[in-house]
């Protein structure tokens, strides 16, 4: 789906290229992978105030306190273009209250075997991690006084890695007990609804009637 002639949505091969380029950044920079970057960009699009790409893009390439590094000029320019187009695509989807289509990796165990059922949900940890990074960096989400925002964000925090979940752990454990998610598709739908509810408040996007049988979102595989 092309949004505008200047900012077309990424194609499948471009999602692969995005992940490949991010993985080529020097390890010492602790750059985000494509799934983390997707969560980061989604949170950016939910902020009440727009943040300049010159402020947010460096955080994708280099974690705070890490040694900054970048690709050779042509690759770096292409990477930045892909990220900005993805940012515009996510913003478009949120503005039109279309379900998000997060970049997720096929979940596997330590032996490379595919995971199934509830075990699949680990695939959303990078997305949630990147989302939290943006939420902690700029105001508008974590400090929101709107109950609807705080309650909806819990749908993101439940997927945070154990070393990042912090004070949200009790809420996560309660959700796991009272509102378990059966598989990754269910988790993505639940997350999409939570993000839609946040967007309705922080960005003022009006609620629209959700189709009774919404189309399943296509996973972006590694």
Distance between the termini: 21 Å
Order of helices and strands: HHHHHHHHH
Low-confidence runs of at least 5 consecutive residues: 1-5, 209-222
**Residues in β-strands, percent:** under 5%
Chain-averaged pLDDT: 88
Helix content: 40-55%
Shape: globular
Number of helices: 9
Largest sheet features: none
What is the gyration radius calculated from CA atoms? 17 Å
What structural class should be given to the helix and strand makeup? mainly alpha
Instruction: Please give the number of β-strands.
Output: 0
Notes on the structure:
Helices cover 51% and strands 0% of the residues. With 222 residues, it is mostly helical. Mean pLDDT is 88; it is low at 1-5 and 209-222. It comes from Candidatus Aphodousia faecigallinarum. Pfam families: UPF0149.
Keywords, separated by commas or semicolons:
222 residues, mainly alpha, globular, disordered N terminus, disordered C terminus
Write a concise synopsis of the structure shown.
By secondary structure, the chain is mainly alpha-helical. It is built from nine helices and no strands.
């Amino acid at each position: 789906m092309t949004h505008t002639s200047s900012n077309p949505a990424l194609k499948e091969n471009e999602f692969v290229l995005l992940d490949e380029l991010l993985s080529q950044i020097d390890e010492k920079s602790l750059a985000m992978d494509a799934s983390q970057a997707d969560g980061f960009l989604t949170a950016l699009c939910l902020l009440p105030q727009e943040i300049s790409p010159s402020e947010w893009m460096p955080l994708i390439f280099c974690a705070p306190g890490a040694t900054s590094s970048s690709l050779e000029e042509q690759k770096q320019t292409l990477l930045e273009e892909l990220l900005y187009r993805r940012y515009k695509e996510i913003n478009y989807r949120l503005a039109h209250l279309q379900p998000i289509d997060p970049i997720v990796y096929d979940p596997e165990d330590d032996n490379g075997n595919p995971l199934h059922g509830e075990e699949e949900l680990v695939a959303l940890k990078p997305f949630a991690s990147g989302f939290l990074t943006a939420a902690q960096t700029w105001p508008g989400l974590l400090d929101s006084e709107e109950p609807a925002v705080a309650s909806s964000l819990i749908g993101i925090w439940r997927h945070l890695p154990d070393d990042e979940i912090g004070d949200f752990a009790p809420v996560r454990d309660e959700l796991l007990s009272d509102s378990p998610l059966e598989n990754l598709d269910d988790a993505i739908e639940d997350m999409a609804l939570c993000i839609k509810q946040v967007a309705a408040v922080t960005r003022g996007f009006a609620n629209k009637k959700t189709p009774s049988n919404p189309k399943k979102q296509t996973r972006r595989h590694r």
